[in-house]
Every structure is written in C-alpha cells, then in structure tokens.
Specification:
By secondary structure, the chain is an alpha/beta fold. Helix content is 39%, strand content 15%. The strands form 2 sheets. A 4-stranded parallel β-sheet has the order 2-1-3-6, sandwiched between helices. Strands 4-5 form a two-stranded antiparallel sheet. The longest helix is centred in the C-terminal third of the chain and has 20 residues. The chain is globular. The chain starts with a strand and ends with a helix.
Length: 200
C-alpha cells in the first residue's frame, strides 16, 4: 500500500492539538500529514518529532526504511536548532533554551548563514539518498532563506505553514498551528503535489 511519510518538527507532529495528550509520543490525527494522507487515500506515517532540528530530521530520514511506493513530504525545521547525535540518544539544542549546552551552542557555534548552508546540504543529500527509493519526495521549509546556494537543486513547496498559522486560530498553547491551519496547509500541499502523484 502506498504511504504518505511525513518528517518534521512539532508542526508536523501536531503538538498542542486537542488529541496529542502527552505531546511527545503519539502524533495528532488532526495534523497535516493525516489530513493530506486522507485526501490522497493513503496510509499516514507521521514521523514528526517535537523540537526537532534539521540535523535530527535528516538523521531520522536516513534511518527510516523507505518503500518504493512511499510519498515523502518533509517540513524542515528552524535554523536556530541543532542536536548532538550519540549512539543512544539525540540531544536537542535550541538557542532559546536556557541550559548550558544550548547556551554554549548559541554563543560559540550558531550562525544563521552557516545553518542555512547546512540546511541546503541536508536537503540535497536527502534528495539524493531517497532518489529511486521512493515514489515522490517533496521539501518545504519554515525558516526564511536569506541566502542562495549555488549547489542547491531543491525546489521547495510554496505552502507556508508560518503564514497560515498566523492567519488562523492557534493550538492549545496559543503558539503552534491550530486545526484549521493544519487543514489549510494540507490543502495547499495537496494542490501542489496531486499532479505529480497522478503522473507517476
């Protein structure tokens, strides 16, 4: 069976939507991956991870088992996030978190230009990695791209979760996208990819 496999952070997981009680382990059925999968009549595999960095998303994709009929949609995360990958864990770093590791990351290692180059690198690597392994792969980003990269070969989807989130009611925390925002985002992504899916 063809699956819609979605990767991203809390905006893919569906954090703070009414049915994400623990907000950690079980993604919301009201999040855009499930809505989009329903529109396409596909099984939904939501591999979003709250507070994920682009490095963590990249790592998660490298470690999932692709099926050649999969349709993969990635809603990449913010440039102010990073992580340390160990043999047993992923340690999340975020420049707005008040802990020693995150503060040191922000002070000594973080630069937006560098993080955007890193972002392009990961997007392009994943496209090459999944090429000929899945039916379709599409990328979307949440951070505003301030630089152009000569090596970038990715055409990003135009649907903008942040703009949609700001126009519609928020989730329970009054920050994350609410149900209507997830519905609108799924609708816009659907309109962008439906012809590509039907042609393959």
């Amino acid at each position: 069976m063809t699956r819609l496999v979605a990767f991203g952070c809390s905006n893919t997981f569906g954090s703070w939507l009414p049915d994400t009680e623990d907000r950690i382990t079980k993604p919301s059925k009201s999040a855009w991956p499930q809505i989009l999968a329903d529109k396409l009549n596909l099984e939904c595999v939501n591999l979003g991870s709250p507070a994920a960095s682009n490095k963590e998303i990249w790592w998660k994709i490298l470690n999932y088992q692709p099926v050649e009929t999969d349709i993969v949609i990635i809603l990449w995360s913010w440039y102010d996030r990073y992580c340390i990958i160990t043999d047993s864990d992923v340690i999340k770093l975020h420049i707005h978190h008040d802990n020693v590791r995150s503060n040191n990351f922000s002070k000594y290692l973080h630069h937006t230009y560098d993080m955007q180059i890193d972002f392009y690198l990961r997007c392009n690597h994943i496209s090459q990695f999944l090429k000929n392994k899945v039916k379709l792969i599409r990328h979307n980003n949440q951070g505003k791209l301030l630089i152009n990269s000569s090596f970038n070969e990715i055409d990003f989807l135009k649907a903008d979760m942040n703009t949609i989130r700001d126009m519609l009611p928020k989730a329970l925390d009054n920050s994350h996208p609410g149900i209507e925002a997830h519905e609108q985002f799924a609708k816009e992504v659907y309109n962008e990819i439906k012809d590509d899916i039907n042609s393959r």
